[in-house]
Amino acid sequence: HYPLRRQRQMCIRDRPQARHRLLERYRLAGLEGLGLAEAPLALRAAGGLLAYLDSTQPDVEGEGDSRESIPLERPRLWHAGDQLVLDVQTRRNLELTRTQMGGRFEGSLLWALDRTVTAMGARCLRRWVEAPLVQIAPILKRQEGVSELVHQRSLRLAVRRLLRPMADLERLAGRAGAGSASARDLVALADGLERLPRLAELLRSGESAPLQALAKPQPHLAALAADLRHTLVDSPPLSLSEGGLIHDGVDPRLDGLRNQLDDQERWLADQERQERQESGNANLRLQYHRTFGYFLAVSRAKAASVPSHWIRRQTLANEERFVTPALKEREGRILQLRTRAAQREYELFTALRQQVGHHVEPIRVAARLVAELDALASLAEVAATEGYCRPEIVAGRELTIEAGRHPVVEQLLVDTRFTPNPIALGAGQEQAPDLLVLTGPNASGKSCYLRQTGLLQLMAQIGSWVPARSARFSLADRIFTRVGAVDDLAKGQSTFMVEMAETANILHHSSPHSLVLLDEIGRGTATFDGLAIAWAVAEALAQNLGARTVFATHYHELNELAALLPNVANAQVLVEETGEDLVFLHQVVPGGASRSYGIEAARLAGVPPTVVRRAREVLGRIEANSHVALGRA
Q1: CA 97 to centroid of chain Cα atoms
Q2: CA 232, chain centre distance (Å)
Q3: DSSP structure class, residue 591
Q4: Taking CA 254 as the corner, what is the angle to CA 249 and CA 258, rounded to the nearest 5 degrees?
Q5: Alpha helices in 247-406 (DSSP H)
Q6: Whether the Cβ atoms of residue 109 and residue 129 lie closer than 8 Å to each other
């Protein structure tokens, strides 16, 4: 907690100290080149991160100030316009990386799209999902990579097969640069670097930019991989201080020490044979223990007849252990040679690790390209196996989806098929309004339809294909959602106040290029108050803001907006009523629903029949006595 407290204090107060740390760490004369001179909050945050690193990174003996030697990338500024803005509520409601119920990974959008085979590819895909693009060119660049991998199945499978065993090059390079990489880390790094030429050969015929980027040979990394393979054994031990790391023939000094150790091993073998002959004990064994060193082991029955020059060292239940003066003298020589050999191996290993540290930046660049390729192959795998289409990215405000499907729900369904639905918004035509009033029964799929629309827009802006028959998207600057009911007891806010606060945020920040998804605005207060609020919010979004909006509601009076405003249309989720049975068709069609079937939904949910009958009686009285003339409002 102490380093974190230091970091918070520094971010708040110590702007000069943060500037000093950055200038010293990156050996700069000014911060203008980093773009931090006019960004004081970002400057303090970057300085705080360096302070945290200084307080948590231990010094490595023999390597100077390890904190200064860690190869950090230079900080980069991100602005709001660089990526699609997603507030906390939208991330939660769309369940991008975890579900609302239980916070599980399974059931999130990332779960549905993640078929990556490497850790760095998984991180890359997560970054894409959490920060969609807002520029057409990079979106199209990713789309081209996905499309090529979708259409060339054999290439996609070969790429994934080659990437699957690849270690995390990003993390391994960082460890090597920080001086904390083990021998096994460097062997794993060598394995990954050796796969780059094979990957380049595989992608040589690729036409898209992401594939061509990895098709270029990188001889310096291939040479580094060869050095690692030449120096390190294939399966090194975990410990770096006990030897067994370096191949024979790498270092003459180490080879000399090993030759002397081989001579000592031969002496030990000869000594064991000699002692067996002199003692007449064929079962005698010469062994080594880390604590007791070398000793001669004989059974308890033979212990009384050992030669007189043997010295008893230890007595066990079934054997006696002895040493001889010659063995004791030779033991010191052997241990000294082993220590010198292990020290020499460690010196060679640290020099090799430092050599890798000098190549951190090109390794990171290659790792980023590999991670992007893995993420693209993951999106292509999902698109090919789940029947996605390549969306068309267009200018303007259009959002047109034919036979769209929810990317997560359709994968979770086992016994039934997902019912696809269309949507058209913002094309400036009567068939594509700015605001769509969506009505229908409870549990019929309105919330799923809202989330589906938002997820497909987001998927299109990360460069992915989408689950639909066809789709045309213009770029959204923000996606807003108001789905579900929550309260914030810690702040003393009721469900209705939270809903109104989120609605106010949407009305203050949405634009004609925003996508707004609203579910049941106004339901948390009195019926007439809620209806009035919902009407006013819908009017503001359609008339004043012009945001592309799907407005799901049980206030059927809002269907009148379509007759009053030219850019508003109605849609409903169909339900089939046969006697007392209610069948949800999950199909969205034009037109407004006339009732919500709330009592029928309550019956299906298991509400007792007596309560259902009484609810019908009360509803009849309310409908007979209620007259709302909202059209004159």
Answers
A1: 8
A2: 32
A3: S
A4: 90
A5: 252-279, 325-357, 360-386
A6: yes
pLDDT of residue 57 exceeding 60, the answer is yes
Q: What is the pLDDT of residue 431?
A: 61
The model scores a pTM over 0.90:
no
Separation CA 13–CA 359 (nearest Å): 36
Per-residue pLDDT reduced to its tens digit, 561-603: 999 999 999 999 998 877 667 777 889 999 987 777 777 777 7
Residue 628 pLDDT grade (very low, low, confident, very high; cuts 50, 70, 90): very low
Q: What percentage of the chain has pLDDT greater than the value 70?
A: 91
What are the tens digits of pLDDT across the range 26-43? Answer: 888 878 777 787 788 888
SS3 of 197-221:
HHHHHHCCCCCCHHHHHHCCCCHHH
Handedness of CA 28, 29, 33, 34 (dihedral sign): positive
- Of 577, 386, 538, which is closest to residue 466 (Cα–Cα)? 386
Q: How far apart are CA 114 and CA 109, in angstroms?
A: 8
The pLDDT-based confidence of 64 (bands split at 50, 70, 90) is: very low
Tell me the percentage of the chain whose pLDDT exceeds 90: 55
pLDDT tens sequence across 287-338? 888 888 898 888 887 787 788 888 888 888 788 888 888 898 898 899 999 9
Integer Cα distance of 372 and 247 in angstroms: 35
**pLDDT for residue 68:** 55
- Return left, alpha or beta for 260; rule: phi > 0 is left, psi -120 to 50 is alpha, else beta: alpha
- Find the Cα–Cα–Cα–Cα dihedral 438, 440, 441, 444, rounded to 10°: -70
Nearest to 378 by CA among 166, 530, 160: 160
Distance between CA atoms of 87 and 92, rounded to whole angstroms? 9
Neighbours of 552 (CB within 10 A): 23
Say which amino acid occupies 338. Answer: R
Evaluated on CA atoms 232, 236, 239, 242, the torsion sign reads negative
pLDDT for the residue 486: 53
How far is Cα 155 from Cα 148, in angstroms, rounded to an integer?
Answer: 9
Element (H, E) at 422: strand 421-425
Could you tell me the strand order of the sheet in which 311-315 lies? 285-289, 293-299, 319-323, 311-315
Give 100-119 as a 3 state SS string.
CCCCCCCCCHHHHHCCCCCH
Alpha-carbon gap, residue 65 to 389, rounded angstroms: 53
Cβ(360)–Cβ(173) below 8 Å: yes
- Please provide residue 164's backbone torsions phi and psi, each rounded to the nearest 5 degrees: -55, -45
Q: What is the pLDDT of residues 369-394, one digit of tens each?
A: 999 999 999 999 999 999 999 999 99
Length of the chain: 633
Residue whose C-alpha is closest to residue 563's, from 437, 403, 382:
437
Q: Closest Cα to residue 377, out of 122, 633, 63, 177?
A: 122
Interior/surface letters 208-230, b for 16+ CB within 10 angstroms, e for the rest: bebbebbeeebeebeebbebbbe
Residues 6+ apart with CB under 8 A from 594: 556
Instruction: Report CA-CA distances (Å) from 327 to 265, 269, 339.
Output: 12, 12, 18
Averaged pLDDT for residues 340-344: 95
DSSP code for 525: S
230's enclosing H/E stretch is helix 219-231
Under 8 Å between Cβ of 423 and 552: no
Q: Where are the beta strands (DSSP E) in 448-494?
A: 470-473, 479-482
**Dist. CA 455–CA 619, nearest whole Å:** 37
- Round the average pLDDT of the chain to a whole number and report it: 87
